[in-house]
Amino acid sequence: MTDSFSGQVVVVTGAASGIGAVIARHFAEQDATLVLSEIEGAQLTASADALAAAGHRKPMIHVGDLAKEERRRQADSANAVELHGSIDILVNNAGGGIIKPFLDHTPDTLRTTVDRNWTALWSTWHAVPIMKAKGYGRIVNIGADSVRNGLWDHAAYNAAKGGVHAMGTGLAREFATSGITVNVVAPCIVNTPQVQQASATVPHLIKKFVDVVPGQRPGGMDEIASVVGYLASKEASFVTGQVISVNGGSTML
């Protein structure tokens, strides 16, 4: 086991399963002190228990809808500081959205798609003062390559994720002299459990999204997590305000 994040407090939102759970595992393997959050309590507990069973320090967990400001106040930032004295790294993985043709959306599905990504704004707003006070911080937002390549049926989703991308650049410039970097990791289609399930039920739809990737495969969750880990490291101190695509070449430059 390496200890690249030993002594650092890492908050990962949306950490119960999929990409978030793999990101949490990568940090745990490098001896980070973890605070994990998710709306699904049973899944989050299972994820934390699995890390402990693998011999890692058991993460603190918080269950709640982080899109709601009153939940946000009770969540990761306050808990991390109360228990561990600080926050060093925030990974805004919670998000997602409803993918469907734009005119098939309803006011509710549009609002849900935006609200799911509102979590990044609240989480960051609460974490930045703590990072600024200590003169150090790393914020990594999980965005989407579809913002750049205009995938079918992603217009509403891109409206939400595009905001996450834009927030990152603004924050990066505003807090560049405070020792805080802010970057975005933008995956294309990723081989998550949800994608695996969809491959069995709507294979034509998954093929449509894979076909835009020159490598002709989804990304791996570990491939996403490894880039998050680099951007969260001390070595990445001169990388800020960037959208790093992990996309098999589905967009270039």
Automatic annotation (TrEMBL):
GO terms for biological process: monocarboxylic acid metabolic process. Pfam families: adh_short_C2. PROSITE patterns: ADH_SHORT. Signal peptide: none annotated. InterPro entries: NAD(P)-bd_dom_sf (IPR036291), Sc_DH/Rdtase_CS (IPR020904), SDR (IPR050259), SDR_fam (IPR002347). Belongs to the short-chain dehydrogenases/reductases (SDR) family. This is PsbB. It comes from Rhodopseudomonas palustris.
